Amino acid sequence: MPTAKKPRVLILGAGFGGLTAARAFGDSADVTLIDRHNFQTFLPLLYQVATAGLAADHVAHPIRGALRNRGVQFRMGSPLSVDHKNKSVKLDSSETLEFDHLVVALGSATADFGVTGVAEHALGMKSVHEAILIRAEVMRRFEDLCRFEDETIFSISVVGGGPTGVEMAGAFAELVRGPLKNDQAHAAAHMKINLIEAGPRLLPMFSPKLSERTKKDLEKLGVNVLLNTAVAEVKPRSIFIKNGEPIPSEVTIWAAGVQGEPTAGILNLPLAGTRIDTDNTLQVAHYPHIWAIGDIAGFKGKDGKFLPMVAPVAMQQGRFVAQQILRVAKGEKLKNFKYKDKGSMATIGRNKAIVEVKKFKLTGVLAWYAWLFLHLFYLLGGRNKIGTIADWTWNYITFDRGNRHIMDTL
Ligand SMILES: Cc1cc2nc3c(=O)[nH]c(=O)nc-3n(C[C@H](O)[C@H](O)[C@H](O)COP(=O)(O)OP(=O)(O)OC[C@H]3O[C@@H](n4cnc5c(N)ncnc54)[C@H](O)[C@@H]3O)c2cc1C
């Protein structure tokens, strides 16, 4: 009996969703994965690169290494267009790849929400390159302060009180209070960390009790937490807020939100806001051979709201989309995707974290261990895990941060 032809699957984006999908097909499909980078970025630990806690290459894992012995092809490049009639994607490398199924997993990009000056005067937090830029900018200003003997204050402002903003602000405060104080106490004493949030509390996805605890923990570390403070404009050295005095800010980091990756706009697919309009099966509306997963998918949960842009959604959808495509290949009925929410966690600093799984709440050192363990577990690559354990152990024992290099210029 002739064997059924394997479906040709093209996956755009090798992040949490795309890479999980590519690895889930086994040898049941001819899979090609496409990404503009030759590495996967472990975004949850990016803030530690920006705050000198972790070497940049520990959060980047070679895609070809992750695909070794799995029969998946990789192409480095970006999609330029999709030919929907002939089912092919043109890449910026001039190559055109044909597909039976296309999975769009291009993730998200920094959203400025129309606030003037964000693109020009604030630093985003979506890539290793941006994390290295942030670290360099902060360390450069610290070197400037080391030259002054006066009372000049240098402020770092993190805009956005979600997990990324909270983790960054806490890590900056620890950098200043520890390693930078040991380097030059006068300069460190003149560095100020602001965390600016438009809403009434930090971490709105957690219970109000944990939000309050987070605020107190950050304030104990010396972070100036500003709630109900909506940014109206970012200027070169200050932040203008709605109904208030401008806030001096030498370095402004924009962690206020993300939107669907704009490349979705050139693929000629229906959009729901900035994300690709996706139905319950993960198929793109009206395009039965195109699927969207992860941050870029405009998939709505039971409550009618888009699913959160978090790694577990992308990974669960990555595994699920592979099963769906294999169902189509076998002539089976499609299933509806259901997200299993396993809870949220965030770390505030040394021995301090919060974990919330439905009604179960954990804080302090146990939550911190849970956070460390889970992040190490999901970090790809043995070398990255060993390097991360080495950096964390060094930081914990010595109270130092060995990665405070300025490496963004020659
Ligand atoms: C700073 C930060 C911290 C985070 N912390 C957490 C956390 O602690 N826990 C958590 O659950 N989630 C966290 N998230 C969210 C989580 O990382 C995302 O939800 C997850 O990465 C989404 O997976 P994805 O596959 O949709 O996109 P991604 O993992 O972002 O992958 C998208 C891929 O597409 C590629 N790509 C994009 N555009 C193009 C193009 N034009 N051409 C070619 N390739 C392209 C990118 O290079 C990337 O490899 C964090 C996000 C950020 C930014």
Question: What does this 3D model show about the protein?
Answer:
- This protein is of the alpha/beta class and 410 residues long.
- The protein has two domains: 8-36 and 77-110 and 259-329, FAD/NAD(P)-binding domain (3-Layer(bba) Sandwich); 118-256 and 343-397, FAD/NAD(P)-binding domain (3-Layer(bba) Sandwich).
- Helices cover 32% and strands 26% of the residues.
- The protein contains eleven helices and 27 strands.
- The chain has helices at 16-24, 46-50, 63-67, 118-121, 128-147, 163-183, 185-189, 208-220, 311-329, 364-378, 382-398; strands spanning 8-12, 30-35, 39-41, 60-62, 73-76, 79-83, 88-91, 96-98, 101-104, 108-110, 122-123, 154-159, 191-196, 224-226, 231-234, 238-241, 247-248, 251-254, 258-260, 271-272, 275-277, 283-284, 287-292, 297-298, 344-349, 352-357, 360-363.
- The strands form eight sheets. The protein has a six-stranded mixed sheet.
- A hairpin with a 5-residue loop joins strand 16 and strand 17 (247-248).
- Helix 1 packs parallel to helix 9.
- The chain is globular, with a radius of gyration of 22 Å.
- The termini are far apart.
- The mean pLDDT is 95.
- Flavin-adenine dinucleotide is lined by residues 13-18, 35-37, 40, 43-44, 46-47, 78, 105-107, 125-126, 163-164, 261, 263, 294-296, 309-312, 314.
